């Protein structure tokens, strides 16, 4: 008996900065997990991964990560992926600083 397909998002690292990015349904790369395309079909997931892997001048290390539908878009289901959404852990900057700073 085959296992049921778990929904996925395509994730990679932006080639120039190394930032974590996610493939959106409109083919753009976004740094926000909740903007990623939530893929619920295994064949479609493989096609999207091939598309991501072909963008060698923009991203590296593309792979499929488990996700689930959330109120504001896809949410990670694994600790590693949740950790990647927060940005680099070596010092307080980037996404980490943006999420805690007051907005004008």
Automatic annotation (TrEMBL):
UniProt xrefs under InterPro entries: DUF2849
Pfam families: DUF2849
Descriptive protein name: DUF2849 domain-containing protein
Native species: Neotabrizicola shimadae
Species lineage: Bacteria, Pseudomonadati, Pseudomonadota, Alphaproteobacteria, Rhodobacterales
